[in-house]
Specification:
alpha/beta, Rossmann fold, seven-stranded mixed beta sheet
């Protein structure tokens, strides 16, 4: 299934009017389980980092997490990078419209080549690494771009059914993925080899999260790939399913999972 065209179609509806875009961000924050886990970790990092931080949002997309971090403090200076020109132009316009262009800037970058030595206190990479073949080059660049003591935060599918792939013969549910998911030992080894002194990996999307993802993401994407006319029915679909997804997301956030289809990874320089 193609995910990027769906995002682009939604962007045409919400992106041009700042207040609608902010509402859309908040809707995604409520609906998407990964946003619950990422925001939980970012709040922890905020307490440790304080009111001033230099941040790289690596693979920022349409700026959902960049916007969230920009609300922490005016002292958080954020660079968002993405490989898609239209995303960069769109995000720069949006943040200029909401008077955050001095705090937040976006630029085009290939993460396999992007390097800013000793520049960032925090690097975030949310649902990005499953799209990049040469992940070792990216992890090395992340390490070199962090200041000493800096933190890398990654969200990515695991090999326990991540991307809705359940064995070696399965392909990712999202066509743009180059890998179905990471094994915990594999990603820890790659980060350690890149130079990181400490790596923590936790499963997310346990049983509650898997059910929530199926209801909130898989079924809608299947429907929208069939016909864009189903955008009309989407609000009614979520009116019915969202209360269940909200409860499932809450339990997934509170539980410790022995296995899960997603990973939250933190690594320190």
């Amino acid at each position: 299934m193609k995910y990027e065209p769906i995002k682009a179609s939604l962007g045409k509806v919400f992106n041009n009017i700042p207040v609608l875009r902010i509402i859309f961000y908040k809707m995604l924050d409520l609906l998407l389980l990964r946003a619950w886990h990422i925001k939980k970790e970012l709040r922890k990092i905020k307490k440790q980092t304080g009111p001033n931080a230099s941040v790289l949002d690596a693979g920022a997309g349409f700026g959902q997490y960049t916007y969230y971090m920009s609300t922490f403090s005016k002292g958080w200076s954020i660079t968002g990078v993405d490989i898609i020109d239209a995303q960069i132009e769109d995000c720069n316009r949006f943040f200029a419209k909401i008077n955050k262009s001095q705090q937040v800037k976006f630029e085009k970058a290939d993460l396999t080549a992007f390097l800013r030595p000793e520049s960032f206190d925090l690097i975030t990479s949310v649902d990005v690494m499953e799209h990049i073949e040469d992940d070792r080059a990216v992890f090395s660049n992340f390490y070199k771009s962090l200041k000493k003591g800096g933190c890398l935060l990654i969200s990515t599918p695991s090999d326990k059914g991540g991307s809705d792939a359940h064995d070696n013969d399965d392909h990712s549910f999202i066509a743009e993925h180059v890998r179905n998911g990471y094994n915990i030992d594999e990603i820890a080894e790659k980060l350690t080899t890149a130079g990181f002194s400490k790596v923590e990996c936790l499963y997310q999307y346990g049983t509650p999260g898997k059910i929530s993802w199926t209801l909130s993401m898989k079924f809608p994407i299947i429907m929208l790939n069939k016909t864009k006319l189903l955008f009309i029915l989407l609000p009614f679909y979520y009116i019915v399913t969202f209360p269940f997804c909200f409860i499932l997301n809450y339990f997934d956030l509170q539980m410790k999972h022995a296995e899960g289809t997603g990973l939250i990874v933190k690594a320190w320089k």
